[in-house]
Design brief:
The chain is an alpha/beta fold. It folds into two domains: 5-119 and 304-320, ATPase, nucleotide binding domain (Nucleotidyltransferase, domain 5), CATH 3.30.420.40; 130-298, Nucleotidyltransferase, domain 5 (2-Layer Sandwich), CATH 3.30.420. 41% of the residues lie in helices and 18% in strands.
Amino acid sequence: MKPITILGIESSCDDTSAAILENRAVLSNVIANQEVHEKYGGVVPELASRAHQSNILPVVHQALEIAQKSLSDVDAICYTIGPGLSGSLMVGSSFAKGLSIGSGIPLIEAHHMKAHVLAHLIVDDAQRNPGFPFLCLTVSGGHTQIVQVDSPEEMHVIGKTRDDAAGEAFDKAAKILGLPYPGGPLVDKYAKEGDGNKFVFAKPDIPDLDFSFSGVKTSILYFIRDEVKSDPDFISKNRNDLCASIQATIVDILIVKLRRAIKLTGIKSVAIAGGVSANSGLRAAMLELQHEGCEVFLPKFAYCTDNAAMIAIYGHYQFLDKKFGALNAAPKARYAF
């Protein structure tokens, strides 16, 4: 039986990526990052879309070359239709549609956040695949949610943030500390050398399985502002401990809710996904759940941040169900799960 070959294209934010999947195995996964945003302290949408326009053709070409495939080998083109930045999504969408028209290859539309979850189903020697059902804590710069995954098609959000995402909290805390963008990975780096119990920050008491991180950010801001008034060098003297304490606070909020979800659903197969799933503190806290009888699944680092391999695995399952996209489908900056 001929294997299913999917070309995945991801352009939801500031990373341009293309990947080739054969059945569930990754043959290539190419990512072009955009360093232009660093000096602005965050992603500038207009600059992001321009960079996608420059990157997308060479990235797709390279993905095919590494996979040793030609366009004629591809069974479907799966692209991110949303959620994400409108301009960035438009570049990926337009390119995928043009490629589809020119080649006659069918289109598949991918939901970015669902694709993050399905990255766990990629066949890769560096990661294990969960069975169904499982719970997935999906944490990124724009989303924080707990998803009950009953099958590749059946996913339900059972908890979500009511305001800011955990990834945003990491980045905003890093900015308060004077760390450059993107600050989340730097907080993780310095936290490894610090004491997570040194400083205490507010933890919101939100009912059910929902999250809130706006109060955490405010607590960090006011604490550091007051300390710097007394000692202008407070941040430099305590950088590692501050990062460790901030990380410990955010991770604890996440794990408390995941534990509650495990108890409520009875599902003890748990995973994490999204950019923050690369955080060492969160990964360590997840592994601790093994001592509570849970089976824990951590994504390979290459599949944590935005990448086209996760889009292609989403496309794989859509292809099996013969769920194809339309040329008149518009990108969705906001796209309900």
